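Before relying on records like the one below, remember that each one covers exactly one chain. Contacts with other chains, cofactors or solvent are not represented anywhere in the record.
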Amino acid sequence: MDFEKVVYKRRTIRRFSQEPISLDILKKLIDYARLAPMGSNKQSLSFIIVKESEIVQKVFPLVRWAASLPIKERTPEKDRRPTAYILVLQDKTIKEHADFDVGAAVENILLGAVNHGLGACWMGSINRKELKALFHVPDQFEITHVLSLGFPDEKSTVEKYVDSFHYWKDKEGKMHVPKKQLDAVIFKIT
């Protein structure tokens, strides 16, 4: 897919068909992440791929969904849950602060997911303690985020920002996400 189409198509997806994602595609997403820019080239990030159904089900209650939506619309229904996850780990012995590195790596994964026909949700509201225990993650690593993945089973569209950043679902379940217009985010041209 052409790069501009990928960027404009990328939306947060929280409802998925139950078609499994191949391990090759999941590894390719990690490959995109490892090539992201890293401050001082200190590569402190590692990843856990979760694709086995039994383990995917154990991760599901350890993440939180769409805080801006009403409670009944937040959490995906049982037959529309993610089919895979990628956990992002930062090795604190290599680098203490890696927020920018994480952001660059995750964005590469998100764009790569779209390119492979996948939907994804970048999640920071997660139960880190329980996730570390589930995957036996050593203390030197922090789990920074979880990415839920699957083939999309919902639509999401960009709306013109008018007085609120609040996103919403319409009667058909389509997500509407307000975004500022280009001219509104350009502070100055010199």
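The first strand starts at residue 45 and ends at 50.
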